[in-house]
Every structure is written in structure tokens, then in C-alpha cells.
């Protein structure tokens, strides 16, 4: 996984949006906002993913295929929805099996976008309460395993005044030392 600051230049969300020169994001910065990641080669990944799932209490999983072929008529609508800034009340855990894409997360307290370029073998964990969004890159396809601590659910809470005071958002900010 490559992490860098998003350039905020309008245009196709599927492009890298990397500053020139690039502004890489350090492991320490990702740790400070509680974003976790591992690289686990896809060949023979099962035992390693199972071990991490057991250690972190992930009880359920499924696989999602985000592509025109995999999603059919709802593809364009879903891609737009995924790119709306939102948070979840649960961790978002993804292991990339094939393809590639971008997760953008908000750095706090600066509110800058950090772009996480993911490819096969990358496992990321976004904490509950972090504002983020997702998009494919120009290859237009990703297959990822989704892991869940409990029953699979994926409820986005779009950023706004109500979400800013959501208990999961407030708790997230407290855990990273931002806010009261």
C-alpha cells in the first residue's frame, strides 16, 4: 500500500491525485489516526488472514467484486456512493485479492485527505468513526474480502452536522486525541 496526500485538484477521481513532487504519508501518521495495514501475498493468504481475523475478533467475511461486470446496472451509482465522504460505526476491513483502487481517509486535526493506493495483498483496517471514501483506479476493477467483527453490515453515515456528533465519531476523535 502506498499512502500520500491527495492533491484536491478537480478531475477524475480514479486518477492518482498525487502532488508533484509526491507528499508521502508516514507510518507514524497513519498510526496516529488508527489506520492499520499489512501486506500479505495473495498466494497462500488464507492462514495469515485467518490468524489476523482470530486475533482481532473478525467472525464473518465475504467477497465483493467492484467492476462493471461484477455489479451490472448498479455499477455507476455504487461508485458515486462509495466516493461520498462518510463514516461507519464499525471498522472497515478490506483485503485486496485482485485489482486496485483508492481509499481516502481524513487526517485529523488537519482534515487533509490521505490517499491509500491498494493492490493485491494489501489488508487495511479503517477505524469506526473515521471519515473516508473509496474509488476504483483507472483499471476499473477490484475484488476484495470484507471482514466483519459481527454480522456483515455496511451502513454509511455521510459527513454532516448529525454525523459529526455521532457517538462513534466522537469516540474515534477521543481515541486519537482530538476534541474533548
Describe the structure.
With 180 residues, this protein is an alpha+beta fold. The chain has one domain (2-176): Jelly Rolls, CATH 2.60.120. The chain is 23% helix and 32% strand. It contains six helices and eleven strands. The protein has helices at residues 27-32, 46-56, 68-71, 75-82, 161-164, 167-175, and strands spanning 2-5, 36-39, 60-67, 86-87, 92-99, 101-106, 113-118, 122-126, 132-136, 141-148, 157-158. The protein has a five-stranded antiparallel sheet with strand order 2-8-5-10-3. Strands 1-7-6-9 form a four-stranded antiparallel sheet. It is globular. The mean pLDDT is 95. It is found in: Cytoplasm; Nucleus. One of its GO terms (biological process) is L-methionine salvage from methylthioadenosine. It holds the Pfam family ARD. GO terms for molecular function: acireductone dioxygenase (Ni2+-requiring) activity; acireductone dioxygenase [iron(II)-requiring] activity; iron ion binding; nickel cation binding. It is an enzyme of class 1 (oxidoreductase).
Number of helices: 6
- Please tell me the overall pLDDT: 95
CATH homology superfamily name: Jelly Rolls
Structural class, from secondary structure content?
Answer: alpha+beta
Output the strand order for the largest sheet.
2-8-5-10-3
Q: What would CATH call the architecture?
A: Sandwich
Q: What share of the residues does DSSP label as strand, in percent?
A: 25-35%
Distance between the termini: 32 Å
What is the count of β-strands? 11
CATH class: Mainly Beta
Amino acid at each position: 500500500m502506498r499512502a500520500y496526500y491527495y492533491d484536491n485538484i478537480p478531475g477524475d477521481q480514479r486518477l492518482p491525485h498525487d502532488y508533484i513532487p509526491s507528499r508521502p504519508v508516514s507510518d507514524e501518521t497513519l498510526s496516529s489516526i488508527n489506520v492499520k495495514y499489512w501486506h500479505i501475498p495473495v498466494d497462500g493468504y488464507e492462514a495469515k488472514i485467518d490468524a489476523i481475523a482470530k486475533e482481532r475478533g473478525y467472525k464473518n467475511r465475504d467477497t465483493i467484486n467492484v467492476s462493471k461486470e461484477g455489479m451490472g446496472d448498479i455499477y455507476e451509482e455504487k461508485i458515486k456512493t462509495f466516493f461520498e465522504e462518510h463514516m461507519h460505526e464499525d471498522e472497515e476491513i478490506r483485503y485486496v485479492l485482485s485489482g486496485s483502487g483508492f481509499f481516502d481517509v481524513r487526517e485529523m486535526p488537519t482534515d487533509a485527505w490521505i490517499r491509500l493506493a491498494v493492490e493485491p495483498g494489501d489488508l487495511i483496517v479503517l477505524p469506526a468513526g473515521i471519515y473516508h471514501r473509496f474509488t476504483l483506479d483507472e483499471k476499473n476493477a477490484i475484488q476484495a474480502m470484507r471482514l466483519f467483527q459481527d454480522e456483515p453490515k455496511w451502513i454509511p453515515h455521510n459527513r454532516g452536522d448529525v454525523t459529526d456528533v455521532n457517538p462513534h465519531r466522537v469516540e474515534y476523535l477521543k481515541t486519537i486525541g482530538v476534541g474533548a
